[in-house]
Amino acid sequence: MSAPKKIENFLNSFLQRVEVLQQRLSDEIDKKIISKLDTENGNIKYSTDNLLKTQEIDKVIDDFTKRNSGVFKYYAKGLQELLKSNISYYATFNPQSAMTGLETTINHSLERMGITPQGAIVTNGLLYQVSQMQDVRFFISQQLQLSIARGDSFDVTIKNFKTAFQGDKNVNGKVFNYIKTNLHDLTYKVDQATSNQMATNLQLNYFRYSGTKVKNTRDFCLHRYGKVFHRNDVEIFPKNKPYFQDNYDFFTDRGGYNCLHVIRWISNQLGEKLHNKELIEDKDE
Known about the structure:
By secondary structure, this protein is mainly alpha-helical. It has two domains: 3-203, no CATH class; 205-285, no CATH class. The chain has helices at 3-32, 48-54, 57-67, 70-90, 101-112, 126-131, 134-150, 154-166, 174-201, 219-222, 250-253, 268-274, and strands at residues 39-40, 43-44, 206-210, 228-230, 262-266. The chain has a three-stranded antiparallel β-sheet. Strands 1-2 form a two-stranded antiparallel sheet. It has twelve helices and five strands. The protein is 56% helix and 6% strand. Strand 1 (39-40) and strand 2 form a beta hairpin.
């Protein structure tokens, strides 16, 4: 299986679990917060007691994340396996480095993500912080406090909350969006940075711009798709496209936000044969 496909499959599997997590959390907030709000004539009462109940959201989510930590443990273990799959590929260039430099590179990448070499989540590390869903907590609190202040009907409060929180077939829910925003691009970046470091260690200078073409593939990626470049060729690549991140770096950011392509390093011998001589300057983009 190609490297881009491995990442895509891993993230799709993880995000499917996130959707289930989102539904569970929605039900939990309904049961432990919304259903306990005081009403009068079918409307949510504007009262100190009700406002105080919204302050229980942090406690409810803390308890929820502890009981549902398996989703993030799945991500931690999956990322570890994804990065380690690079070893079998890059070890073919220099088998002696497989158990030393390559393993060290992977462990450094995991450490950046707040994951131990054994695949455990480090408390207060990056992945742990994502799992605490601070932005989601703020959204829930704001949504319920507005309903209380307006004196919305209980039924409308439930409906509005579930619609906004869970999303629908056209709009992703809050938990899904929050976690995807924080981990989707970062997963590609960490895998690419790990691969890049391995290539540097092995003194590889050529890469193929790999991945798949979809209907909304950007011109930047279409122009490079499947082509082989020398690392120095990147100097003439554009660096200011609208979809490029701040402090854009081609070797980790590739085609910008939500890019599904990867830089696949190849042997110098093969690279010299396949090197794309006509470099792409993007004059027509």
